[in-house]
Write a structure and sequence with these properties.
This protein is mainly alpha-helical. The chain is built from 21 helices and 12 strands. The chain has a two-stranded parallel ribbon with strand order 1-8. A two-stranded antiparallel sheet has the order 2-5. Strands 3-4 form a two-stranded antiparallel ribbon. About 3% of the residues have low confidence.
């Protein structure tokens, strides 16, 4: 029998996903700047035309101007579309929205019951494609003001781009029995109906349909000809208004379009020089840090922006190693003592973190360690026994090295090497991205500037580890964890003058996604590159891809 609500615990234990406030720098600050409108799971280009088609059909059939009804309509159509994608006659292996719920059903012979793609409001559209389509100026979201009144549901803007996006998908499927009848009934779906729909509509087909492919391309990369736009069907029953066409202002940022074009052009230039970026995150990150020859001043700016993102992620992994070992060592020491730790005891724990791999002398000067890096003489053994020269190793190898070793000393070494490699980096793009901070942590530029000031005082290695712990770990985590109450996400906090450690979730926290997967899949869908059979060269730019790079980057 459950306990009465009045005696249930008021605090809910939760690990928390970003205990030091570093993920949010990427998710909320850097990615919207670098690649506006593209979410990590906005991965298939044909979903943009599919969802535009659904909104157009909903409008044209004068269905209820109600968010719950529209949500159910979208989720049911996504369910049916997911079945079709999973039964692609080519066996393309695409993963549609709702794949987990559909995979078992799709393997059967049919008939197939009806359902809804995911439990979330508006399904995959709401989770992955609604915000991008609004950012692109394709969709006016519910609440957009029209004639001084908010519209009740999402609708398409009355632009050529929006009309073409919806119309080209419809042209591809309107001959099918699914569209002509099954889409508008609640009957079970036969395998024949779904398989015919799959032949026309699967996600993998977009690159073979020039008109629809070009419409999706324009949705992502072209501005509207009009200075302002109106909503399709805005004087219809669908919206519940009769004010006639009314301008509602700028529907997309031309700067956002330009930034998207530059970032995608930059990605394609990397692919051209390092084809493995489409399959290897390490190759992708290393290419972003050290890009090939730049095409123009605009290319240099966007390349600098993405390099700033990579530097921030290396800093995150380095600090995460300090955090992770501090949590383990602090918890062990607190258990030995049977209480929390005093300030001096916490400092002694931090000094003891030098014993990790690599083992460092706590009394040696940190500047001496930095001098070893400058001379190229510091070698660190990896978890598999391979010795890594820190000075010559690719930067992403160092990021992964400290992640695997998971020691504060490796984090310190990688931070010092990152600061060394950042010296001399310049340019508007680099300075802008490296200067972006979160609400909890300073920017990577501010961190390295503070590190230089700290080193000028001649600290020991133990002093520098304490500097990291006392400045970027303990106070930051406490502030973040207090902001999460009543969810209890503390790994430690000060109580009665002692730092108490909590035994839950003391491990590493992950990096935020940096869009390598959506960049690869969206550009493939749009026919900008093709797969190759050569393992050393798994991808090549198509003629379309080369033209895009030339037009965007010069």
């Amino acid at each position: 029998m459950p306990a009465p609500a009045w005696i249930e615990a008021s605090l809910k234990l939760n690990e928390g996903r970003d205990p030091l406030g570093l993920q949010t720098t990427t998710q909320d600050r850097l990615m919207p700047l670098l690649l506006p409108g593209i979410l990590e799971l906005s991965r298939r280009a044909r979903y943009f035309s599919f969802h535009a088609f659904l909104l157009a059909e909903y409008r044209d059939r004068h269905l209820a101007a109600d968010g719950n009804t529209l949500s159910a309509f979208i989720k049911r159509r996504e369910w049916e579309y997911g079945l079709a994608v999973l039964r692609c006659p080519r066996g393309c292996g695409s993963s549609p929205v709702g794949a987990r719920r559909l995979s078992g059903l799709a393997m059967g012979p049919g008939p197939y019951s009806r359902g809804e793609s995911v439990e979330s409001a508006f399904g995959g559209y709401g989770l992955y494609y609604r915000s991008p389509m609004a950012e692109f100026g394709i969709v006016a979201r519910a609440g957009t003001l029209l004639g001084g009144r908010p519209i009740p549901i999402d609708v398409l803007y009355n632009t050529d781009r929006a009309r073409l996006l919806a119309g080209t998908f419809k042209s591809a499927v309107e001959h099918t029995a699914y569209y002509q009848r099954a889409m508008w009934t609640t009957d079970d779906l036969s395998a024949d109906v779904i398989d015919e729909y799959a032949q026309a509509a699967c996600l993998c087909r977009l690159r073979e349909l020039p008109e629809e492919r070009d419409a999706v391309h324009a949705a992502l990369f072209a501005p509207d000809a009009e200075a302002s736009s109106t909503v399709v069907g805005e004087d219809s029953e669908l919206l519940g208004v009769a004010d006639g066409p009314t301008a509602i202002g700028e529907v997309l940022s031309e700067a956002g379009v330009r930034q998207r074009c530059l970032s995608v052009g930059h990605y394609l230039s990397l692919l051209d020089a390092v084809p493995s970026v489409v399959t290897s995150e390490t190759a992708y990150r290393d290419a972003l840090w050290s890009p090939p020859a730049l095409h123009s001043d605009a290319h240099a700016v966007v390349a600098g922006q993405w390099a700033g993102l990579i530097a921030k992620d290396v800093w995150q992994e380095a600090l995460c190693s300090v955090w992770s070992e501090l949590c383990r060592a602090g918890l062990t020491r607190a258990r030995d003592l049977g209480r929390g730790l005093t300030w001096d005891e916490v400092r002694r724990v931090a000094a003891g973190l030098v014993a990790g791999q690599p083992e460092l002398d706590p009394t040696s000067l940190t500047t001496a360690l930095a001098a070893q890096l400058a001379a190229g003489t510091l070698v660190v053994p990896d978890t598999d026994g391979i010795h890594v020269n820190v000075t010559t190793a690719p930067l992403d190898d160092l990021r992964r090295l400290t992640s695997r070793l998971d020691t504060a000393s490796s984090g310190l070494v990688v931070l010092l090497e990152l600061a060394r490699r950042m010296e001399g980096r310049a340019g508007d793009g680099w300075q802008k991205a490296a200067g972006i901070r979160s609400g909890w942590q300073p920017s990577i530029a501010a961190v390295t500037a503070a590190l230089r000031t700290h080193l000028a005082d001649g600290p020991t290695v133990a002093d520098t580890l304490w500097w990291l712990v006392s400045r970027f770990v303990v106070p930051v985590h406490e502030r973040i964890a207090y902001s999460k109450l009543p969810e209890l996400t503390f790994r430690f906090r000060w109580e009665d003058g002692l730092l108490r450690f909590y035994d839950h979730g003391v491990g590493r926290f992950p990096l935020a996604a940096v869009r390598n997967a959506p960049l690869a899949s969206l550009t493939w869908d749009l026919g900008l590159w093709s797969e190759a059979d050569d393992e050393r060269c798994p991808a090549t730019l198509t003629a379309r891809g080369m033209r895009f790079v030339e037009e965007v980057l010069g």
